[in-house]
Amino acid sequence: MSLLVNPVPRRQPIRRGLGLLGDSFSGNCHTIAATAFGTEAYGYAGMIAARTGLFPSYPDNQGKLGDHTGQFLARLSACISSSTADLWLLLSRTNDSTTAGMSLADTKANVMKIVTAFLNTPGKYLIVGTGTPRFGSRALIGQALADAIAYKDWVLNYMSQFVPVVNIWDGFTEAMTVEGLHPNILGADFISSRVVPIITADFEFPGIPLPTDAGDIYSAIRPFGCLNANPMMLGTGGTLPAGVNAVAGSVLADGYKAVGSALTGITTRWFKEPAAYGEAQCIELGGNMALAGGYIYVQPTANVINTNLAAGDVIEMVSAV
Protein backbone atom coordinates (compact mmCIF):
# COMPACT_ATOMS: atom_id res chain seq x y z
CA MET A 1 0.00 0.00 0.00
CA SER A 2 1.23 3.50 -0.77
CA LEU A 3 0.17 6.74 0.82
CA LEU A 4 0.02 9.82 -1.39
CA VAL A 5 0.08 13.17 0.35
CA ASN A 6 -0.80 16.29 -1.63
CA PRO A 7 0.63 19.49 -0.18
CA VAL A 8 -1.77 22.30 0.60
CA PRO A 9 -1.63 24.84 -2.28
CA ARG A 10 0.34 27.89 -1.19
CA ARG A 11 -1.07 31.33 -1.70
CA GLN A 12 1.13 33.63 -3.76
CA PRO A 13 2.79 36.48 -1.84
CA ILE A 14 2.20 39.87 -3.45
CA ARG A 15 2.74 43.52 -2.62
CA ARG A 16 -0.21 45.52 -1.37
CA GLY A 17 -1.01 47.21 -4.67
CA LEU A 18 -3.92 46.47 -7.00
CA GLY A 19 -3.73 47.20 -10.73
CA LEU A 20 -6.52 47.62 -13.28
CA LEU A 21 -6.20 47.13 -17.03
CA GLY A 22 -9.09 47.91 -19.30
CA ASP A 23 -11.56 50.52 -20.48
CA SER A 24 -13.79 53.03 -18.67
CA PHE A 25 -15.11 50.14 -16.59
CA SER A 26 -11.66 50.20 -14.96
CA GLY A 27 -10.61 53.79 -15.55
CA ASN A 28 -13.64 55.34 -13.86
CA CYS A 29 -13.86 52.96 -10.92
CA HIS A 30 -11.47 55.07 -8.87
CA THR A 31 -9.00 57.90 -9.30
CA ILE A 32 -6.84 57.89 -12.44
CA ALA A 33 -4.72 60.90 -11.43
CA ALA A 34 -3.49 62.50 -8.25
CA THR A 35 -6.32 65.06 -8.24
CA ALA A 36 -9.04 63.26 -10.23
CA PHE A 37 -11.77 61.20 -8.63
CA GLY A 38 -13.85 58.71 -10.62
CA THR A 39 -17.59 59.39 -10.41
CA GLU A 40 -19.10 57.12 -13.04
CA ALA A 41 -18.36 53.56 -11.98
CA TYR A 42 -18.75 53.80 -8.25
CA GLY A 43 -15.74 52.33 -6.63
CA TYR A 44 -15.45 48.55 -6.86
CA ALA A 45 -11.66 48.93 -6.58
CA GLY A 46 -12.13 50.92 -3.39
CA MET A 47 -14.44 48.24 -2.02
CA ILE A 48 -11.90 45.56 -2.88
CA ALA A 49 -9.30 47.64 -1.05
CA ALA A 50 -11.50 47.90 2.04
CA ARG A 51 -12.11 44.14 2.07
CA THR A 52 -8.58 42.94 1.31
CA GLY A 53 -6.07 45.66 2.18
CA LEU A 54 -4.88 45.94 -1.44
CA PHE A 55 -4.55 49.59 -2.46
CA PRO A 56 -5.43 50.69 -6.03
CA SER A 57 -2.94 53.51 -6.59
CA TYR A 58 -3.74 55.86 -9.46
CA PRO A 59 -0.54 55.05 -11.45
CA ASP A 60 -1.76 51.45 -11.52
CA ASN A 61 -5.12 52.33 -13.05
CA GLN A 62 -4.48 51.47 -16.69
CA GLY A 63 -8.11 51.86 -17.74
CA LYS A 64 -8.97 54.18 -20.63
CA LEU A 65 -12.36 55.33 -21.86
CA GLY A 66 -13.47 53.64 -25.08
CA ASP A 67 -10.57 51.23 -25.49
CA HIS A 68 -10.98 47.70 -26.84
CA THR A 69 -8.72 44.79 -25.88
CA GLY A 70 -6.32 45.46 -28.74
CA GLN A 71 -5.69 48.92 -27.32
CA PHE A 72 -5.13 47.47 -23.85
CA LEU A 73 -1.88 45.99 -25.17
CA ALA A 74 -0.25 49.43 -25.42
CA ARG A 75 -0.45 49.68 -21.62
CA LEU A 76 0.49 46.09 -20.86
CA SER A 77 4.16 46.92 -20.33
CA ALA A 78 3.20 49.45 -17.63
CA CYS A 79 1.34 46.69 -15.80
CA ILE A 80 4.25 44.28 -15.97
CA SER A 81 6.81 46.89 -14.89
CA SER A 82 4.78 48.33 -12.00
CA SER A 83 6.79 48.55 -8.78
CA THR A 84 3.67 48.77 -6.62
CA ALA A 85 1.08 46.32 -7.99
CA ASP A 86 1.74 42.61 -8.50
CA LEU A 87 -1.92 41.64 -8.92
CA TRP A 88 -3.97 43.03 -11.81
CA LEU A 89 -7.62 42.81 -12.83
CA LEU A 90 -8.87 42.53 -16.42
CA LEU A 91 -12.63 42.52 -15.96
CA SER A 92 -14.17 44.07 -19.09
CA ARG A 93 -13.95 43.80 -22.87
CA THR A 94 -17.23 45.55 -23.53
CA ASN A 95 -15.94 47.92 -26.25
CA ASP A 96 -14.94 44.93 -28.37
CA SER A 97 -18.69 44.39 -28.80
CA THR A 98 -19.15 47.81 -30.41
CA THR A 99 -15.91 48.10 -32.42
CA ALA A 100 -16.54 47.67 -36.15
CA GLY A 101 -14.80 44.67 -37.67
CA MET A 102 -13.72 43.20 -34.33
CA SER A 103 -14.51 39.52 -33.88
CA LEU A 104 -14.65 37.25 -30.86
CA ALA A 105 -11.49 35.59 -32.17
CA ASP A 106 -9.75 38.98 -32.04
CA THR A 107 -10.80 39.43 -28.43
CA LYS A 108 -9.58 35.98 -27.44
CA ALA A 109 -6.23 36.52 -29.13
CA ASN A 110 -5.70 39.86 -27.40
CA VAL A 111 -6.65 38.55 -23.97
CA MET A 112 -4.47 35.47 -24.43
CA LYS A 113 -1.55 37.76 -25.28
CA ILE A 114 -2.10 39.66 -22.03
CA VAL A 115 -2.41 36.45 -20.01
CA THR A 116 0.76 35.04 -21.56
CA ALA A 117 2.70 38.17 -20.65
CA PHE A 118 1.70 37.76 -17.01
CA LEU A 119 2.44 34.03 -17.00
CA ASN A 120 5.91 34.76 -18.36
CA THR A 121 6.64 37.34 -15.66
CA PRO A 122 7.48 35.82 -12.26
CA GLY A 123 5.77 37.62 -9.43
CA LYS A 124 3.04 39.18 -11.59
CA TYR A 125 -0.52 37.85 -11.52
CA LEU A 126 -3.76 38.47 -13.38
CA ILE A 127 -7.42 37.82 -12.62
CA VAL A 128 -9.64 37.76 -15.72
CA GLY A 129 -13.32 38.62 -15.49
CA THR A 130 -16.24 37.61 -17.67
CA GLY A 131 -17.47 41.14 -18.21
CA THR A 132 -21.00 42.20 -17.30
CA PRO A 133 -24.23 42.27 -19.32
CA ARG A 134 -25.50 45.56 -20.76
CA PHE A 135 -29.02 46.94 -20.42
CA GLY A 136 -31.44 49.52 -21.81
CA SER A 137 -29.98 51.76 -24.51
CA ARG A 138 -26.57 50.13 -23.92
CA ALA A 139 -27.87 46.57 -24.40
CA LEU A 140 -26.24 44.23 -26.91
CA ILE A 141 -28.30 42.30 -29.44
CA GLY A 142 -27.75 39.67 -32.09
CA GLN A 143 -24.21 38.51 -32.78
CA ALA A 144 -22.69 41.05 -30.38
CA LEU A 145 -24.70 39.58 -27.50
CA ALA A 146 -23.89 36.03 -28.58
CA ASP A 147 -20.19 36.88 -28.66
CA ALA A 148 -20.32 38.48 -25.21
CA ILE A 149 -21.92 35.34 -23.77
CA ALA A 150 -19.45 33.13 -25.63
CA TYR A 151 -16.59 35.19 -24.17
CA LYS A 152 -17.98 34.66 -20.68
CA ASP A 153 -18.08 30.90 -21.26
CA TRP A 154 -14.56 30.94 -22.72
CA VAL A 155 -13.19 32.73 -19.68
CA LEU A 156 -14.87 30.33 -17.25
CA ASN A 157 -14.12 27.12 -19.15
CA TYR A 158 -10.80 27.81 -20.87
CA MET A 159 -8.97 30.74 -19.30
CA SER A 160 -9.50 29.23 -15.85
CA GLN A 161 -6.80 26.69 -16.77
CA PHE A 162 -4.20 29.45 -16.73
CA VAL A 163 -5.24 32.23 -14.35
CA PRO A 164 -7.88 32.86 -11.69
CA VAL A 165 -11.15 33.96 -13.26
CA VAL A 166 -14.20 35.71 -11.84
CA ASN A 167 -17.81 35.47 -12.98
CA ILE A 168 -19.31 38.96 -12.76
CA TRP A 169 -21.89 38.28 -15.49
CA ASP A 170 -24.34 35.96 -13.77
CA GLY A 171 -26.34 37.87 -11.18
CA PHE A 172 -25.43 41.34 -12.46
CA THR A 173 -28.64 43.35 -13.05
CA GLU A 174 -29.67 46.67 -14.55
CA ALA A 175 -30.28 48.04 -11.04
CA MET A 176 -26.53 47.68 -10.48
CA THR A 177 -25.69 50.13 -13.28
CA VAL A 178 -25.59 53.90 -13.72
CA GLU A 179 -26.99 53.89 -17.26
CA GLY A 180 -27.20 50.26 -18.30
CA LEU A 181 -23.44 49.66 -18.49
CA HIS A 182 -21.16 51.14 -15.82
CA PRO A 183 -21.65 49.85 -12.28
CA ASN A 184 -23.16 52.06 -9.60
CA ILE A 185 -22.50 51.54 -5.91
CA LEU A 186 -24.66 48.39 -5.90
CA GLY A 187 -22.73 47.06 -8.87
CA ALA A 188 -19.45 47.91 -7.18
CA ASP A 189 -20.52 45.94 -4.13
CA PHE A 190 -21.52 43.00 -6.34
CA ILE A 191 -18.26 43.00 -8.30
CA SER A 192 -16.09 43.29 -5.20
CA SER A 193 -18.04 40.48 -3.52
CA ARG A 194 -17.11 38.20 -6.44
CA VAL A 195 -13.48 39.29 -6.71
CA VAL A 196 -12.50 39.37 -3.03
CA PRO A 197 -12.90 35.62 -2.30
CA ILE A 198 -10.59 34.85 -5.23
CA ILE A 199 -7.97 37.28 -3.99
CA THR A 200 -8.04 35.99 -0.43
CA ALA A 201 -7.95 32.35 -1.57
CA ASP A 202 -5.05 32.71 -4.00
CA PHE A 203 -2.89 35.54 -2.65
CA GLU A 204 -1.39 36.77 0.59
CA PHE A 205 0.18 40.06 1.55
CA PRO A 206 3.25 39.99 3.80
CA GLY A 207 2.51 42.40 6.60
CA ILE A 208 4.24 45.71 7.15
CA PRO A 209 4.63 46.24 10.90
CA LEU A 210 2.86 49.22 12.38
CA PRO A 211 5.02 51.66 14.35
CA THR A 212 5.25 50.92 18.06
CA ASP A 213 6.85 54.13 19.33
CA ALA A 214 6.91 57.81 18.47
CA GLY A 215 10.57 57.64 17.47
CA ASP A 216 9.95 55.24 14.59
CA ILE A 217 11.08 57.78 11.99
CA TYR A 218 13.12 56.99 8.86
CA SER A 219 16.82 57.53 9.56
CA ALA A 220 20.20 55.89 9.17
CA ILE A 221 19.47 54.08 12.42
CA ARG A 222 15.97 53.02 11.37
CA PRO A 223 16.17 52.78 7.57
CA PHE A 224 12.70 51.25 7.38
CA GLY A 225 11.00 53.73 9.68
CA CYS A 226 8.16 56.14 8.97
CA LEU A 227 8.42 59.12 6.65
CA ASN A 228 5.68 60.98 8.49
CA ALA A 229 6.03 62.61 11.88
CA ASN A 230 3.73 61.45 14.69
CA PRO A 231 3.09 57.93 13.38
CA MET A 232 1.38 57.14 16.69
CA MET A 233 -1.42 59.64 15.91
CA LEU A 234 -0.95 61.35 19.27
CA GLY A 235 -2.50 64.65 20.30
CA THR A 236 -5.48 66.71 19.20
CA GLY A 237 -3.91 69.65 17.37
CA GLY A 238 -4.62 68.63 13.78
CA THR A 239 -6.54 70.79 11.30
CA LEU A 240 -10.19 70.15 10.44
CA PRO A 241 -11.33 72.65 7.76
CA ALA A 242 -14.94 73.53 7.03
CA GLY A 243 -15.03 71.18 4.03
CA VAL A 244 -15.09 68.06 6.21
CA ASN A 245 -18.27 69.22 8.05
CA ALA A 246 -16.84 68.28 11.45
CA VAL A 247 -19.22 68.54 14.41
CA ALA A 248 -18.31 70.56 17.50
CA GLY A 249 -15.71 68.93 19.71
CA SER A 250 -14.02 67.02 16.89
CA VAL A 251 -10.24 66.54 17.14
CA LEU A 252 -7.49 65.28 14.83
CA ALA A 253 -3.99 64.07 15.73
CA ASP A 254 -1.11 66.54 15.85
CA GLY A 255 0.63 67.18 12.55
CA TYR A 256 -2.26 66.01 10.35
CA LYS A 257 -4.89 67.79 8.29
CA ALA A 258 -8.15 66.61 6.78
CA VAL A 259 -9.59 67.48 3.38
CA GLY A 260 -13.19 66.98 2.31
CA SER A 261 -15.20 67.66 -0.82
CA ALA A 262 -18.81 67.28 -2.00
CA LEU A 263 -20.00 66.23 1.46
CA THR A 264 -23.38 67.93 1.28
CA GLY A 265 -25.69 66.13 3.70
CA ILE A 266 -22.83 64.47 5.59
CA THR A 267 -21.46 65.35 9.03
CA THR A 268 -18.26 63.95 10.52
CA ARG A 269 -17.19 63.41 14.12
CA TRP A 270 -13.47 63.10 14.79
CA PHE A 271 -12.38 61.65 18.11
CA LYS A 272 -9.61 59.64 19.79
CA GLU A 273 -9.63 56.22 21.46
CA PRO A 274 -6.92 54.21 23.23
CA ALA A 275 -4.88 51.82 21.06
CA ALA A 276 -2.28 49.15 21.69
CA TYR A 277 0.35 51.68 20.61
CA GLY A 278 -0.32 55.39 20.47
CA GLU A 279 -3.89 56.52 19.91
CA ALA A 280 -6.59 55.53 17.46
CA GLN A 281 -7.95 58.33 15.29
CA CYS A 282 -11.65 57.70 14.78
CA ILE A 283 -13.99 59.22 12.20
CA GLU A 284 -17.77 58.80 12.43
CA LEU A 285 -19.98 59.69 9.47
CA GLY A 286 -23.59 60.82 9.79
CA GLY A 287 -26.39 61.88 7.47
CA ASN A 288 -27.07 61.09 3.82
CA MET A 289 -24.78 62.05 0.96
CA ALA A 290 -26.55 64.33 -1.50
CA LEU A 291 -23.85 64.46 -4.20
CA ALA A 292 -21.81 61.87 -6.09
CA GLY A 293 -18.05 61.84 -5.75
CA GLY A 294 -17.76 62.99 -2.15
CA TYR A 295 -14.58 62.13 -0.32
CA ILE A 296 -12.53 62.66 2.84
CA TYR A 297 -8.83 62.08 3.28
CA VAL A 298 -6.26 62.70 5.98
CA GLN A 299 -2.63 63.58 5.34
CA PRO A 300 0.40 64.85 7.28
CA THR A 301 0.60 68.63 7.44
CA ALA A 302 4.32 68.68 6.65
CA ASN A 303 5.78 67.53 3.34
CA VAL A 304 7.64 64.22 3.32
CA ILE A 305 11.41 64.75 3.42
CA ASN A 306 13.08 62.59 0.77
CA THR A 307 16.72 63.26 1.72
CA ASN A 308 17.39 59.66 2.72
CA LEU A 309 15.49 58.08 -0.16
CA ALA A 310 17.18 56.62 -3.21
CA ALA A 311 15.94 55.92 -6.72
CA GLY A 312 13.97 52.70 -6.76
CA ASP A 313 12.87 52.89 -3.12
CA VAL A 314 9.21 51.97 -2.67
CA ILE A 315 7.11 53.92 -0.20
CA GLU A 316 4.26 51.90 1.29
CA MET A 317 1.39 53.13 3.41
CA VAL A 318 0.06 50.96 6.21
CA SER A 319 -2.64 51.50 8.81
CA ALA A 320 -4.86 49.46 11.08
CA VAL A 321 -8.55 49.90 10.32
From TrEMBL:
It comes from Pseudomonas coronafaciens pv. garcae. GO terms for molecular function: hydrolase activity, acting on ester bonds. SUPFAM superfamilies: SGNH hydrolase. Gene3D superfamilies: SGNH hydrolase (3.40.50.1110). This is Prophage PssSM-02, GDSL-like lipase. It comes from the Bacteria. InterPro entries: SGNH_hydro_sf.
